Structure formats: C-alpha cells, structure tokens
Amino acid sequence: MPKRRLVAAVLMGATLAGCGTLTGCGSSRSTTSPQADQAFLNSVYSQAPDIGSYRSGPQLLSLGQVVCSDLESGASVEEVGDRVPIDEGNIALPPGDLGIVISAAVDQLCPKFHKLLSE
C-alpha cells in the first residue's frame, strides 16, 4: 500500500479537529534546513495542488513541524493525525491532504520516522 494511502487510511478513523498536539499548538520550531523546508512544500504541493488555496506555505510548514515534533515526543502516526491542528481558518484540511502533509513531513523534515509510516 503506498504511503499516502496508508497514512490517509490511518487518519480516516481519527477525530481530526482541534489543536491538542503533544508539544502544544505549533510551539516548537523545527531545526530543519531551508532546503528541507522547500522540499517538504514542493512534495505537498505536487501531491495536493489545490492545498495552496486554503493553506499558505508557512501554515503547511508549521503543520509539518508539528508532525515531526509529535513523532519525536513518541506519538504514533494515528495520534499525530488526531492532534495536528487542521481546523485553523475557514476550510478544514481534508483527511487525504492531512495524510499528504504527514507523509511529506516524514519524508523531508524528519526522515528518521520513516518506519512509522509502514507500521
């Protein structure tokens, strides 16, 4: 099963609202490089071209950083899906797009957690 579908499938059953991350609502700034940040955004935009119409690059990068921060704190992928703040703004982030953000974050921002996507 491709990572994108796996992550989306895990997240479909999750309650996808609120800002209850393990580290707080985006309170941790990632120490990724500008190149990794851009690779993350490029990956998200290539897989979900319409996401830019309801999430800015900085908002997406913040979500990606929260994903990595939560995984670093010991959360499972499902827990991350429950905790990532997805309802900021007027349009909620669809589960499939959240799966893309999580997958791209792991691929580009915190690759040491790759094994969690296949569990």
Task: Summarize the structure in words.
It is a single chain. Helix 1 (3-12) crosses helix 5. Helix content is 55%, strand content 0%. The chain starts with a helix and ends with a helix. The chain is mainly α and 119 residues long. It has one domain (3-12, 33-117). The protein is globular, with a radius of gyration of 12 Å. The model is unreliable at 8-29 (pLDDT under 50). It has helices at 3-12, 34-47, 57-72, 77-83, 95-109, 114-117. It contains six helices and no strands.
Describe the structure concisely.
The protein is built from six helices and no strands. It is mainly alpha-helical and 119 residues long.
- Quantity of strands, as a count: 0
Q: For the record, give the distance between the C-alpha atoms at the N and C termini, rounded to a whole number.
A: 11 Å
Mean pLDDT: 78
The number of domains: 1
The Rg value, from CA coordinates, equals 12 Å
Report on the biggest sheet: none
Overall morphology: globular
Low-confidence stretches: 8-29
Strand and helix order: HHHHHH
DSSP strand (E) fraction? under 5%
The quaternary structure here is single chain
Category by helix and strand content: mainly alpha
Helix content: 55-70%
- How many individual helices? 6
